[in-house]
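Contributing new records

If you add data, match the layout below exactly. Sequence lines come first and carry their own label; structure lines follow with theirs. Keep one chain per record. Anything else will be rejected by the validation script.
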Amino acid sequence: MPIRLTKAVKALLILCFAAFILQHTGDQFFGTNFLGWFGLVPHGFVFEYRFWQIITYAFLHGDVMHLFLNLMMLVFIGGELEAVWGTARFLRFYFFCSLSAGVLYLLLQLLIWGESGLQTPMVGASGAIYGLLMAYGLLFGERVLLFMMLFPMKAKHFVWVLAAIEFMTTVYSGRGGLASAAHLGGMVAGFGALWGGAAWKVFRKHREQAREASKREKKRKAAEHLRLVVSNEEKDENERPKTWH
């Protein structure tokens, strides 16, 4: 599969890698608290008003493998989606999926685990990446991806296998499954954004067609009325009494 490093994909790669270096260097060697300040911590977000966490958490990662897998998927599928959509739409979609995954994580921690879940942070771009995977599976369903880097599989099947894995992880992994639920949230958000966008385009198209039909009908009625008026005037002129000189 060809790799396309487009503008937004490059920027996201650089930002995630730089944030990873700062996060782990600062936290491990200098005693900083990047995770507490910039990871998505329910207590910090809700009670300490660290609302920026809903955005910044997607640039932090737990370990090297976490970072590598997310950035690898971004490289493989992100450039092609950006080339089709354009940079602005690609970034809107990316952050919409990321925000949706974060909001779902917060709600689940607060509703399911309550006090015990308030200090559990979430980091990683996985919610956005899973949203991109959903979009890729819908738009390029016949493309072949390597499942677990070994098994070739069509993109449309790859997406549903991942969704099934994340669903089972959510159900059977206890508290750890909430991160997988957030991944599913990113996928659902991606599907909803694409479906909603397509539905809106269809609605606008039908509305434009209805307007054009209404305009044509008005023009037709106006033309008929004009012909009627002209016809009556000609008749009146012919019936007018003539005077001979």
